[in-house]
Every structure is written in structure tokens, then in C-alpha cells.
Amino acid sequence: MDYLRAYIEDKIDIDEDDWQKITSLFVRKEYAKGEEIVSAGEICQKVYYVSSGVTRMYMIDTEGKDLTFAVNYNKNSYRLDPFAGDYFSYLTKTESDLFCEALCDCVIYEADFSKLDKLYASELKWMTLAKAITDNQLVTIYQRMKMMNSLTAKEKYERMKEIAPIYEEVLPDYQFATVLGIAPQSLSRIKNS
Predict the structure, then answer these.
(1) CA distance 7 to 26
(2) What is the CB neighbour count within 10 angstroms for residue 79?
(3) Which residue, 24, 53, 130, 170, is the most exposed by fewest CB within 10 angstroms?
């Protein structure tokens, strides 16, 4: 949980008592490769910190197509968005349309959103942390929307290889193509050009 602590300390000052408050909210769980961590159709109640391993957040569209939404990676000293969960589902109290699966054996720490909310409401510093996390997610969503709507397929591919090369390494091409919002055939043409 070293990265989690560093992530928090980058946003607010905490001492050992504060760290104990945070760690007491998380439960350690292990998931085997292929195991489902989150199921669509339920209201998401938890946030998941991927301590080691790789997970994939995805949805199934109305045509039955598998669409990868995010990869959560924390392996071999490389981290890319090691937090998973459907905060929209929790906030709106609506069924999530996201699944999360372990792409390899994973160690994951789970915390209830409601318990985190109580912590956030208890002191100004915790509210500051919550705002920083939310702001970061908003920026990420905006950047992704901008990328998806303003770049060509080739530009999307090049940008993703630049900012998150691990996606191409851990996902089969058909899943990587859905991250880019392009057809697998288009991805194949781009890679072969």
C-alpha cells in the first residue's frame, strides 16, 4: 500500500494516526486470473485499489460487444490508475454497467464508498483529499473525451502508446481497439502501416 500512501500524501499531509484511519477502511483480497471483481447489474458500493496485478474495467453494449473502459495496472514498479470501481453508480444509486476482471493474479484492497464518505466528512483535510481525487478524475475524463472526439484513429493510437503503452501490452487487439473507439480492422491497418 506504499503507492496509496504516496498518492494521498501528494494531496494532503497525514501522520501515522491518519494513515491508520485510512488503512482500517480497506480489506485485502486476492483474485485469480480471470476472476470477476465487479459485476454489472449491481449498485457499486466499493472502490478497489490494485496493490499488485492488472485488472480490466469493461462493459457489454446493447449489441453484445465487449468494450474496455480502463486498465488498472500495478505491477513491476509500474503503475497506471490502480484504482477501480464505478463511482457514478455509487453516486446515482443506479446499477453499474461495468464489469471488472483480473487479468492476472491480483492483490486488491477494497473499501466501502460509504465509509470513505464518512471519513471525508469528518475533517477539512479529508474533504480536501476527496476534492483532489474528484478533480483528478474529472480531468482524466475530460482528456479522454477530447481525445476520442478530436483525434483521428491513428492519432488516438499514437497518443495511447505515448501515455499508456501498457494497454497494448496487456490487452488483445480487439479489446485495445475498443479503448481507442475504433474497429479492430482499423487498428490492424494502423499497426501495419
Answers:
(1) 15
(2) 15
(3) 24
Residue boundaries of the structural domains of the chain: 2-122
Contact criterion met (CB below 8 Å) for 112 and 25: yes
What is the C-alpha separation between 34 and 32, in angstroms, rounded? Answer: 6
Distance (Å, rounded) from C-alpha 165 to C-alpha 157? 10
Q: At what angle do helices 113-122 and 124-150 cross, to 10 degrees?
A: 120
With contact defined as beta carbons under 8 Å apart, do 96 and 28 qualify? no
Closest CA to 175 of 193, 164, 161, 187: 187
**What's the CA gap between 143 and 139, in Å, rounded?**
6
CA distances in angstroms from 114 to 43, 79, 87, 120, listed in the order given: 12, 26, 11, 10
Give the three cell numbers for residue 39.
459485476
The angle at the Cα of 33, spanning 187 to 83, to the nearest 5 degrees, equals 75
Model-level pTM?
A: 0.86
pLDDT tens digits for range 30-77: 999 999 999 999 999 999 999 999 999 999 999 998 999 889 888 877
What's the CATH fold of domain 2-122? Jelly Rolls (2.60.120)
Using CA atoms, how far apart are residues 102 and 107, in angstroms rounded to an integer? 10
